[in-house]
Amino acid sequence: MEPVVILVNPKYSGNVGAIARCMKNFEVRELRIVGDRGILDKEAYIRSVHAKDILDRAVFYNSLEEAIEDIDLVVGTSGIVSGDRNLKRVPITPKELAEKHLGLKGKMGLVFGREDDGLTNRELDLCDLFLSIPTSPEYPVMNLSHAVAVILYELYTLKLEKPFPVKMREASKLEKDTLIKLFEDFVDANENIPEYRKELCKVIFKRIISRAFISGKEANTLMCAFRSKKV
Ligand SMILES: C[S@@+](CC[C@H](N)C(=O)[O-])C[C@H]1O[C@@H](n2cnc3c(N)ncnc32)[C@H](O)[C@@H]1O
Hints:
By secondary structure, the chain is an alpha/beta fold. The protein is built from ten helices and six strands. Strands 3-2-1-5-4-6 form a six-stranded parallel sheet. The longest helix is centred in the last third of the chain and has 18 residues. The relative contact order is 0.15. The chain binds S-adenosylmethionine. The site of S-adenosylmethionine has 18 residues, from helix 7. It comes from Methanofervidicoccus abyssi.
């Protein structure tokens, strides 16, 4: 997959410049920014060094929804994980993402949050996967540009190795979206699921489907199950 770096309301222009620099180091071309063009000031260009072209080509959006509209796999990032206590924040590592994305087609959006507040829960809910770089529990939160560098490094080094042959056709975005929509309709129509649990069920299902990198055949088989289910 083709990585696309998506920054949500970055506050420090120096960070944006440093991110452009490491994107060039690891051959990632596309930078999207949710926020204002004013972030690309002199400091950003100084810190980008030989990656000014990446800043020149950066595309700006008003919301994360708009920025991910054409993205096939959306990966939200954070240093804060909570395992079983919060099922929406069960993470994969950059290495796992790199291993699983090999050989797949389409665009992979890597979404990074604000330097002070990170990504909101609502923004994380828009993501297909939740990724966290393993770090010390005493101080898990990294500098924004360092976090981008670590993730792009993992993707880059695996790309350099011989890609694994893909044995099964992976599910297309349309197939995954259809399966997720069928599941959501199933949840909405199911009176046995308490209302307060429905939204969580939907997000967890989306995350599981994305973590599993399912094949087209698997997606279509599961679609049948939800279509035929009477509730
Ligand atoms: C300085 S951090 C934001 C800190 C904020 N207090 C929080 O709780 O997320 C800025 C961004 O860097 C990325 N980041 C920082 N540490 C990370 C880690 N260990 N794993 C993955 N991404 C990380 C995330 O995108 C995060 O939103």
